[in-house]
Write a structure and sequence with these properties.
alpha+beta, five-stranded antiparallel beta sheet, two-stranded antiparallel ribbon, 10 helices, 7 strands, 14% strand, Replication initiation factor
């Protein structure tokens, strides 16, 4: 499963089983493990168990020979999560060194520890979401990942002044995790987290126009003002239900979404400014050298 897709593996297994008799039904899924491997300067031991806001009751942290190795949340349940030092696990336990080559291709320098965030979802959770067949599960990976990282578990920045833990903002690192896009066209995921550039006003307006006119056509509304008002009401009602399901007030839900975007965009903006400043310095240095050389 490391080198081939689930569909290719299922096809190969079916070819073997067909030798023993005809199989008419497609494969069912009894468990799915979704994970991302990543490198981060964040200290994974820098928060305590209270930062995990989850529906699970069990939260544990582990060490190997006095070296912090990771967290487990909900162990033994129908859904569980592990955040652990994968390089340490390979060295001490699994010996799965073949992963090194995959990490190198994704830009790993061979020195930094690689961490893995992994969710295990058993049949009970999968069927509760109306999924059963392999093809259905593969077409809904984004939904399963969103449920795991936004509803079932969140890594937050605790606010001692707010006793309602569901209102605590998420850590920026968790914002990256929850925004992972599990592409459903059998193509591999991007090798690393790539922040999108700040969208221009023209792009945002085009997206809004598309949504607004689609809604107006659906509701047979021709007047722009009426369309705006109706669309805003439907928007607020829809996400108010979602935020309530997450245990958040609607305003806090929106603020959290804005905070994630702002954090990403500010990071990009800072990088762009630094790049521009460095380019100016390089240009000035080049001009100075030309003048010094008498060119």
């Amino acid at each position: 499963m490391t080198h081939i897709s689930p569909l290719v593996a299922e096809k190969a297994l079916r070819a073997i089983l067909d030798q023993f008799g005809a199989i008419h039904e497609s494969a069912n899924v009894s468990r799915i493990d979704l994970f991302v491997d990543f490198v981060s300067s964040q200290n994974m031991e820098s928060w305590d168990r209270h930062a995990w806001v989850t529906r699970a009751s069990a939260i544990n942290q582990y060490s190997n020979e006095r070296e912090f190795s990771g967290w487990t949340i909900g162990a033994g349940g129908v859904i569980s999560c592990r955040l652990y030092n994968k390089t340490l696990e390979i060295l001490k336990q699994s010996k799965k060194t073949y992963l090194y080559e995959l990490w190198y291709r994704a830009g790993w320098n061979g020195l930094d520890p690689v961490w893995r965030l992994e969710f295990q979802l058993n049949r009970e959770v999968i069927t509760q979401k109306g999924l059963q067949k392999l093809s259905d599960v593969l077409n809904h990976l984004n939904g399963l990942w969103s449920y795991a990282t936004a509803e079932w578990l969140r890594l937050t920045l605790p606010n001692p002044e707010d006793q309602t833990r569901s209102r605590w903002p998420i850590r920026p690192l968790w914002g990256y995790f929850s925004s992972v896009d599990w592409q459903t066209n059998d193509s591999p995921l991007l090798p690393r987290f790539n922040s999108a550039r700040i969208p221009g006003v023209d792009r945002l307006c085009s997206s809004l126009l598309s949504c607004l006119t689609s809604y107006m056509a659906r509701e047979r509304i021709w007047n722009l003002d009426r369309g705006f008002d109706a669309f805003k009401l439907a928007f607020c009602q829809h996400f108010d239900e979602i935020s309530a399901h997450l245990g958040l007030a609607f305003d806090n839900f929106i603020e959290e979404k804005v905070a994630i975007k702002a954090w990403k965009f500010n990071t990009i903006l800072n990088r762009d400014i630094e790049a521009e400043q460095q380019a100016k310095l390089n240009k000035s240095a080049a001009e100075y050298r030309k003048q010094s050389d008498g060119e």
